[in-house]
Amino acid sequence: MLARVALAGALLCAHLVTCGGPVAIAQVAQAAPTPMPTATASGAAGDPCTTLLSVVTRPTVTTSVCAVKNGGVVVETGYTNTVTAGSGGGVAASYPQALVRVGSFVRNLEFDVVPPSVARASSAGAIASGTMDAGFGAKYELGYTRNASYGVNVLATVPTGDTAFTAGGSTYAGNLNLTYTLSPVFALASTIGFESIAALANGTVVRSGAFVPSLVLTAGLPANSQLFAEAVYFSRAGVGLPSRPLYDGGFQKQLSSRFQVDVEAGFAPAPVNGQRQHSVGFGLAYGKL
User: Fold this and answer.
1) Which of 215, 213, 217 is nearest to 187 (CA)?
2) What's the predicted TM-score (pTM) here?
3) Contact 193, 137 (CB under 8 A)
4) pLDDT by residue (tens digit) across 153-187?
5) DSSP string covering 241-287, please?
6) Sign of dihedral through CA atoms 120, 121, 122, 127?
7) 183-222 pLDDT, tens digit each
8) Could you tell me if 59 and 264 are in contact, meaning their C-beta atoms sit under 8 angstroms apart?
9) Nearest residue to 5 (alpha-carbon basis) of 143, 210, 155
10) Could you tell me the residue ranges of all domains in the chain?
11) Residue 273 — left, alpha, or beta (φ > 0 → left; ψ -120 to 50 → alpha)?
12) What is the pLDDT of residues 39-52, one digit of tens each?
C-alpha cells in the first residue's frame, strides 16, 4: 500500500493517500514495529530480526528494517476505517490490506506481494465499493551494529483497481529504513521515502514526486508487546495537493512465535481542500520465520 504503503508498510504495508473517483477514499498506510538489536555474552551485536515483533511491518508508515529470511513467510492483514471531515467528506473502510512477504534464496532479501484490497466509501448519501490497486516489491536488510540496524526497500503498484479506488497509473517508492536502540525499553525507527505518485485528470495520468520522512518511538512492554507513537510528513498529500503531516499511535502484541495483533489510531490535522482526516484500525499477522 503505497501512499499508506511502505510495504511498508512497512505495506505494505502500506501512509495517507487519496484515490480518485466519484467517492474519494484515504488509505492509511501500514508499516513497522521497531526491532531492537540484542547483545551477546561477548558484547557483540546479535541479529535483531529473530522475532515476529521485529519483522512484521504494520501498522505504521515507518517500514521495519528486518527482512524475512530464506525459507520464511509472513502474511499481514488489517482493517482501517477513515473519517474525512469537511466539504465532500465521508467514511471509508479498506480491508484486508494483505501483504505477503517471502524470504528469497539470497540472505536478508525478501520479495513482497500486495494483493488488491476491498474498499467501501460513503459520502453525501452515495456509496461506492470496489477493489484497490495491487503492488509488488522487495526489501533488503543491509546490516546492523550493537545499537543500530539499516536497510532499504522498494515498492510499485499497478492500476488494477476499480475506477473509484485506483491511482490511475503506476506508482513507485524507494525507502531507506533505520532503527536505533536508545535503552532496553525505548527505540527509534525512521523511514526516509521518495515516491512517484499518479492520478487521473480528465482521462490523462498525471504524476508528481513526494518526499516522505517518518519517525516512530517504541516502548517495550512485558509479554512481548509494545506501544508506538509516530510522526510522518508528506511533501504532497496527492498529485496537485499540498503537504500534510500525519500522527498515529497504537499497541502491538506478539501472541505466539507465529501470531501478532495490533490496534492503532491516526489523524491528519492540517486541512487539505478543506478536509481533515482521522482513522482507527486493527490487524493480524502470521509468520513462519
Assistant:
1) 217
2) 0.85
3) no
4) 999 999 999 998 999 999 999 999 999 999 999 99
5) ---EEEEEEEEEEE-SSSEEEEEEEEEEEEEETTEEEEEEEEEEEEE
6) negative
7) 999 999 999 999 999 998 888 899 999 999 999 999 999 9
8) yes
9) 155
10) 17-288
11) left
12) 333 345 688 999 99
Residue with cell 500500500: 1
C-alpha cell at 152: 532499504
Domain 17-288 grouped into CATH 2.40.160.40: yes
pLDDT at 14: 31
| Residue for grid cell 494483493 | 115
Q: Cis omega before residue 59 (within 30°)?
A: yes
Residue 40, CB half-sphere, CA atoms under 13 Å: how many? Answer: 7
pLDDT digits (tens, 9 = 90+) for 97-128: 999 999 999 999 999 999 999 999 998 888 99
Grid coordinates belonging to 86: 469537511
